[in-house]
TrEMBL record:
Domain of life from the UniProt record: Bacteria
Stored InterPro entries: NTF2-like_dom_sf, SnoaL-like
Organism whose genome encodes this protein: Pseudofrankia inefficax (strain DSM 45817 / CECT 9037 / DDB 130130 / EuI1c)
Full protein name: SnoaL-like domain-containing protein
Organism lineage string: Bacteria, Bacillati, Actinomycetota, Actinomycetes, Frankiales
Pfam families documented for this protein: SnoaL_4
SnoaL-like domain: residues covered: 15-137
């Protein structure tokens, strides 16, 4: 998008939109790490859809939260999500984004390792409560041994 023909107000709005979406992308991992699934679920649109790298799909904020709760119950508590390199494309009241992520966790031997890298492919929508994730598909690009 060329911004040279936009007014100052329009440019500021684009910057604010990009900042809000970027913050939600960063909050996504931190809220998972602190296991605050109530706040994490608020990042999603009510009718959002989440497609995990395993192929599991949940539709609707409550179902998405329930699906993640079942996944998190199986994970050790010492998990760290690293969210990196956001690429955001704005289009009025919708946006798309791709973001690299890595997951680190403490292994049985007591050492902490990065266990996989992947991408979040997302669509976002502006709501009265701010930008929300409308759709997300996770891919795992460099899996750990045995990761589905």
């Amino acid at each position: 998008m060329t911004t040279s023909k936009l007014s100052l107000d329009e440019r500021v709005r684009l910057l604010e939109d990009r900042a809000e979406i970027t913050q939600s992308l960063v909050d996504y991992g931190e809220l998972l790490d602190t296991r605050d699934l109530d706040a994490w679920a608020e990042l999603w649109a009510e009718d959002g859809e989440f497609e995990m790298s395993t192929g599991r799909v949940a539709r609707g904020r409550a179902a998405i939260k329930d699906m993640l709760a079942s996944v998190m119950a199986k994970n050790p508590p010492a998990v760290v999500h690293m969210e990196m390199n956001p690429r955001i494309t704005l289009d009025g009241d919708t946006a798309s984004s791709t973001m690299l992520y890595g997951v680190g966790r403490t292994q049985d031997d007591g050492l902490t390792r990065v266990v996989w890298f992947g991408h979040h492919h997302s669509r976002h929508v502006r709501t009265p409560d701010g930008w929300k994730i409308q759709y997300r598909r996770n891919t795992v690009d460099l899996p750990e041994t045995g990761h589905p």
